C-alpha cells in the first residue's frame, strides 16, 4: 500500500504482505504535483492559455534547478484570472511558494497588469494554480522560467583588525555573536591561546575575586545574547483588523490578531549616525481565516462568512540610520 500525506517533499509509506513498513523520501512527481527539472528556459501556463481556462482545476508545478542555480520567473503580459473579493484572491488564483523558507512569495488574480518577475531563494520554487467551480476567465496566465547562477555578494576588502580605526573595528566586532568569534576575528591563528590568556588568573583578578568572594567569570556570550533578544527584533503585536485593512464597513471576529512586527531600540546601532530606527528587513504576507460580518444591503440581518485576510509579518529587523531613510 502507498500512502501520501500531501507534503511537497514526499514521504512514501510502503507496507508489504508480511506487514513490514518501509519509508522512502525525496523529491518525486505525484498526481497533484509535476516536477520539472530546470536547466535552461521553458514555460508553464494555465490550461488552454491564452483562452478561457477550465473550472475546478488544481495544478502544481515544482521547478527544481541544480544546487548552485536559482530560478527566475517572468509572467507573460497577457494575464487574467477571476477578480478578487474584498481585495483577496480566494477563488481563482496563481501563487508562488518558496519551499526553502516555506513561505508564499505572492498570490495573484484579476485582470490588472501582470505580476512582477520573481526569483527563487533556493534551487526550488513551487507554482500553484487553483480555479473553483464557478466563473472562469481568460486568458489565464503563462510563466516563463529560466535557470540563473547564484550571485555571490561581493565581499569588500577589509583591513586586518590591527590596522582598523576604532570606529571601523567597533562596527566589525559588534555583529559577532560570541566572544570566541571576536577572538577568531582579531587573531585567527592564535585565538585559542588568546582565549586562555583572556581568562588566565592574574594577581589583581585574584585579588578582586578573593575580596568579593566571586569565583565564576562573566558569561560574555550570554550578555551579548540578552542584548540581541531585547533590541531590534520581531515580536508579537496585536493589530485591529479594521484599522490594518482599512475596512470600516465590515466586522471581523476575532477583531484583533497577533502579527510579528519589528520593535525595540537601536542603542547599539552599528551605523555612524545619531538616530537609528528599528525597521523591517524582511516582510512576508500570511493569510489568516477569520469570521466576516456585514450588513445585507436592503434587508435586515447580517451576512456571515469565513474569509482570508492577508497581514504583513516582519520576519527580520535591522537598525537603519534615519539619514538614509530621508
UniProtKB/TrEMBL annotation:
Keywords: Cleavage on pair of basic residues, Developmental protein, Disulfide bond, Glycoprotein, Growth factor, Mitogen, Secreted, Signal. GO terms for biological process: platelet-derived growth factor receptor signaling pathway; positive regulation of cell division; positive regulation of cell migration; positive regulation of cell population proliferation; positive regulation of ERK1 and ERK2 cascade; positive regulation of phosphatidylinositol 3-kinase/protein kinase B signal transduction. It comes from the Eukaryota. GO terms for molecular function: growth factor activity; platelet-derived growth factor receptor binding. One of its GO terms (cellular component) is membrane. Residues 232-324 form the Platelet-derived growth factor (PDGF) family profile domain. It holds the Pfam family CUB. The keyword Aminoacyl-tRNA synthetase does not apply. The keyword Magnesium does not apply. SMART domains: CUB, PDGF. It is found in: Secreted. Residues 18-148 form the CUB domain. Belongs to the PDGF/VEGF growth factor family. This is Platelet-derived growth factor C. It comes from Cyprinodon variegatus. The lineage of its organism: Eukaryota, Metazoa, Chordata, Craniata, Vertebrata.
Amino acid at each position: 500500500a502507498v500512502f501520501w500525506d500531501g507534503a511537497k517533499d514526499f514521504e512514501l509509506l510502503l507496507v508489504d504482505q508480511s506487514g513490514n513498513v518501509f519509508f522512502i523520501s525525496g523529491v518525486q512527481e505525484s498526481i497533484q504535483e509535476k516536477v520539472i527539472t530546470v536547466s535552461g528556459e521553458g514555460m508553464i501556463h494555465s490550461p488552454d492559455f491564452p483562452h478561457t481556462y477550465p473550472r475546478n482545476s488544481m495544478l502544481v508545478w515544482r521547478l527544481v534547478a541544480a544546487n548552485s542555480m536559482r530560478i527566475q520567473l517572468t509572467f507573460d503580459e497577457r494575464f487574467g484570472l477571476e477578480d478578487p473579493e474584498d481585495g483577496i484572491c480566494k477563488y481563482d488564483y496563481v501563487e508562488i511558494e518558496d519551499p526553502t523558507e516555506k513561505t508564499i512569495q505572492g498570490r495573484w488574480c484579476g485582470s490588472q497588469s501582470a505580476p512582477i518577475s520573481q526569483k527563487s531563494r533556493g534551487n526550488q520554487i513551487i507554482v500553484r494554480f487553483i480555479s473553483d467551480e464557478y466563473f472562469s476567465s481568460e486568458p489565464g496566465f503563462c510563466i516563463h522560467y529560466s535557470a540563473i547562477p547564484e550571485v555571490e555578494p561581493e565581499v569588500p576588502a577589509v583591513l586586518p583588525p590591527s590596522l582598523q580605526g576604532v570606529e571601523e573595528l567597533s562596527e566589525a566586532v559588534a555583529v559577532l555573536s560570541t566572544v570566541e568569534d571576536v577572538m577568531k576575528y582579531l587573531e585567527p591563528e592564535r585565538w585559542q591561546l588568546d582565549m586562555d590568556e583572556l581568562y588566565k588568573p592574574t594577581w589583581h583578578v585574584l585579588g578582586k575575586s578573593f575580596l568579593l568572594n566571586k569565583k565564576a567569570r562573566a558569561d560574555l556570550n550570554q550578555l551579548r545574547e540578552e542584548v540581541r533578544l531585547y533590541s531590534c527584533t520581531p515580536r508579537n503585536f496585536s493589530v485591529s483588523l479594521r484599522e490594518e485593512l482599512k475596512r470600516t464597513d465590515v466586522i471581523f471576529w476575532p477583531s484583533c490578531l497577533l502579527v510579528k512586527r519589528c520593535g525595540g531600540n537601536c542603542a547599539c546601532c552599528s551605523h555612524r549616525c545619531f538616530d537609528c530606527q528599528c525597521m523591517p528587513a524582511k516582510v512576508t504576507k500570511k493569510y489568516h481565516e477569520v469570521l466576516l460580518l456585514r450588513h445585507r444591503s436592503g434587508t435586515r440581518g447580517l451576512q456571515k462568512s469565513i474569509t482570508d485576510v492577508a497581514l504583513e509579518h516582519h520576519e527580520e529587523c535591522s537598525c537603519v540610520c534615519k539619514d538614509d531613510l530621508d
